[in-house]
TrEMBL record:
Entry-linked Pfam families: AAA_31
Biological classification of the source: Bacteria, Pseudomonadati, Pseudomonadota, Gammaproteobacteria, Aeromonadales
PANTHER family attached to this UniProt entry: P-LOOP CONTAINING NUCLEOSIDE TRIPHOSPHATE HYDROLASE, PARA FAMILY PROTEIN CT_582
Protein name, UniProt field: CobQ/CobB/MinD/ParA nucleotide binding domain protein
N-terminal signal peptide: none
Amino acid sequence: MTALITSFVNPKGGSGKTVAAVNLAAGIADLAYKVLLVDLDAHASASLALGLKKDPKLGFAGALIADDDIYDFVEKTANTNLDVIKASDDLVAVQVALYNQKEGFLTLKRKLDVLNKNYDYIFIDCPSTFDVLTLNALCASHAFIVPLPCEYYSTSALSTVVEYVNSLEEKGLCHAVLAGILRSYGSNGESVLNEIQNEVVRIFRKNVFKAIIPEDKSLDESIILGRPLVTAMPDSPAAKAFRKLCSEFIYKSPFWLRHN
């Protein structure tokens, strides 16, 4: 069994990247697939959203820059079939160490190769920057998802992500394909939403997920509870949209594995 590895990437803060990663991972785990979520952001937002405390002591960074066993950092969550590798404060310091390592951009890939046989899907929540950790995530991935709030200025971030990944591919560093653009309702009103949606669909066509995540106050409530929305409040509008996304993602995922 080879796990499909997918990164969530957007350098713009507040794009809904972590919410998407957590709920897609939890939703697919709820369908009886074995899922691992890797929290690669030092802020540990994905870990906190799953009700797990950020580890202040040396953590996942030890597995990236030393010979620590990656299995030691895998934790069970309250969701059946969903495991997580939590973020820790020392991820900030790992940047320089990986940069100075020979082929340091492949470190995460080598580590995840060890875990591959244990999971159907591995999701990586990337930092909101194009740093060494994001580079590692993309080099380890078969595919990547770009969460996109449909509001002004968000499309520029989308173009930046695509150009960045294309540049890595041209250098032979990365072979991740665009799994899809995940749209969510922005705060600028319906006219702006439709305008941006039409533009994104026109440019990216089949690389846009049909599921659109609506504005939903339940999203904030689930974060406070430390539980994924899809399991905490399954009847909420956003949870239903995420479940549609899960079905769409699973249906398309064999293509991304074949591509690699």
